[in-house]
Amino acid sequence: MEPESTDALVNGISQALAMPKNNTTAREYAERTLNKENVLRQFIADIRG
């Protein structure tokens, strides 16, 4: 991907979104890791130190 190229970035993102296995893997990771309870638990742990 060319640096500073908006067209190259858009094309790369479009290609990534067209990959069903990657989308499924990313979604599963997000659902497992980035749910509200996990995010808040980590946030509280970070604040408490």
Q: Please, could you describe this protein's structure?
A:
The chain is elongated, with a radius of gyration of 16 Å. It is mainly alpha-helical and 49 residues long. The longest helix has 14 residues, at 20-33. It has helices at 6-17, 20-33, 36-48. It has one domain.
- Summed up, the domain count is 1
How much is the radius of gyration in Å?
16 Å
Order of helices and strands: HHH
Shape: elongated
Q: Strand percentage, roughly?
A: under 5%
- Mean pLDDT comes to 87
Roughly how much helix do the residues carry, as a percent range?
over 70%
Would you report the number of β strands? Answer: 0
What is the makeup of the main sheet? none
| N-end to C-end Cα span | 39 Å
**What would you call the structural class?**
mainly alpha
Unreliable residue runs: none
What's the helix count?
3
Keywords: Transferase
GO molecular function: transferase activity
Organism: Salmonella enterica subsp. enterica serovar Urbana str. R8-2977
Protein name: Colanic acid biosysnthesis glycosyl transferase WcaI
Briefly say what this structure is.
The chain has three helices and no strands. The chain is mainly alpha-helical. The longest helix is centred in the middle third of the chain and has 14 residues, at 20-33.
Which key features would you list for this structure?
transferase activity; transferase; mainly alpha; 49 residues; elongated; 0% strand; 3 helices; Colanic acid biosysnthesis glycosyl transferase WcaI
